[in-house]
Amino acid sequence: METKICVVGLGYVGLPLACLLSKEYKTFGFDVNTQKLEDLKNGVDITGEIKNLSECQIEYSDNPEIIQQANFIIVAVPTPIDDTKKPDLSLVKSATEIVGKNLTKGTIVVYESTVYPGCTEEVCLPILEAESSMQLGTDFKIGYSPERVNPGDKNHTIDKVIKVVAGSDNEALEKISEVYGKITKIHQASSIKVAEASKVIENVQRDLNIALMNELALIFDKLDIDTKEVIEAAGTKWNFNKYYPGLVGGHCIGIDPYYLTYKAEQVGYDSKVILAGRGVNESMITFVSDKLKSNKKILIMGLSFKENVPDVRNSKAVDLISKLKDTGHEVKGHDPLLNGMVLKLKNLILHLVKEDFLPEWPPEEKFDSIIMFSPHDVFKDSKYNLESLKSICTAEPVLFDLKGFYNKEEAEGVGFKYLTL
Ligand SMILES: NC(=O)c1ccc[n+]([C@@H]2O[C@H](COP(=O)([O-])OP(=O)(O)OC[C@H]3O[C@@H](n4cnc5c(N)ncnc54)[C@H](O)[C@@H]3O)[C@@H](O)[C@H]2O)c1
Fold first, then answer.
1. Residue of the nearest CA to atom 27 in ligand 1?
2. 252 catalytic residue (yes or no)
3. Do both 301 and 279 map to the same domain?
4. How far apart are CA 33 and CA 60, in angstroms?
5. Which of 175, 253, 371, 416 is the most exposed place for a label (fewest CB within 10 A)?
6. Are 108 and 139 in a shared domain?
7. Relative to the CA of 12, which ligand 1 atom is closest?
8. What is the pLDDT of residues 285-311, one digit of tens each?
9. Which of 47, 77, 113 to mutate to test ligand 1, by most ligand atoms within 8 A of the CB atom?
């Protein structure tokens, strides 16, 4: 039987995947966001991840019945946390209900959303069975294949990295391996739980490594030692892993650890190291804002959650703006990557930084301090050089260069007090 795929959720994960698969298989793309579907039909991908969208033969639809035409379904919808930092599975559950209602016999449903170990079988499977009135094994199968896509990273695209796959039985695993094996290299995990856990610990590990560097940065700040110089020196040892301090935002690294600690708690384990790391990473906002106590008016450059990505969701720049405003600062933001998106993301941007988003460079106002938050490549343009930055500042300004984008000596040379993490 011909394999026909439907990707449910066409975001940072689902769209590139659907695009690659469409070169091998008949591929449908289902999403609940009709505006996004309109854009995609017109060849526009606002995430900027897919450059040649017209080469992807995806049949887009917001009609759930399109799912019935597929016998291989991939679910890639968001898995955020709620206000109490617990997993918010509402979107996975609602997508699963839709899939269940439109499930046909013999279909395999593969989850790509990041979840805690056990979620696919304990939460999603019962919904699929209830909505479809079918049974796992005899009527349909499930699988899990975590995603490693790294927005803005053109080197580690799906086709170039190994993909972990798991199935509810051997037959499912073989089929899932065959499908993903057409587009990339695969690693077969022995169970869905193993595959789920493997994804979540990738981000737990990264979060903790950054947390350690953040803690060192807090200590070295008190000792008046330059953290990056210390890391460079220590990095000359063969088994020292170089990580750098930073504000951890985005949809993965700062979120996924809470999925694991939630599940750990459910089974009676109180995670200590993972949550301590989260605590340190979350505290960095206060460290940065405390350093700028005496600087009234601040400009933040690069508002997205990391460099070279036009995505402000879960950006710590947003939290930093709130924190600085709460402590009496006047804060404005500038981000050339978001200029074209201001209308598209109007509510989001306006909600986050209100009227304080400055699209033009150089801005006409003067600032007491500048924070280089997400150092996009566009900031390498000469119009963003240190002289230009200095020209929009009052006397004796601070440049808080979070990721060390500018050269310290050069920044001090043009008259900035230079800070970094
Ligand atoms: N973005 C990343 O870098 C990344 C990397 C690895 C894993 N993940 C994980 O992949 C999952 C998806 O993340 P993303 O960044 O692609 O999210 P996204 O927000 O970019 O896209 C998700 C899409 O799902 C759609 N959607 C929401 N509910 C739906 C429903 N019921 N039916 C159909 N579509 C629905 C949304 O409209 C949106 O287009 C998450 O679990 C995330 O943790 C993300």
1. 77
2. yes
3. no
4. 11
5. 175
6. yes
7. 16
8. 999 999 999 889 999 999 999 999 888
9. 77
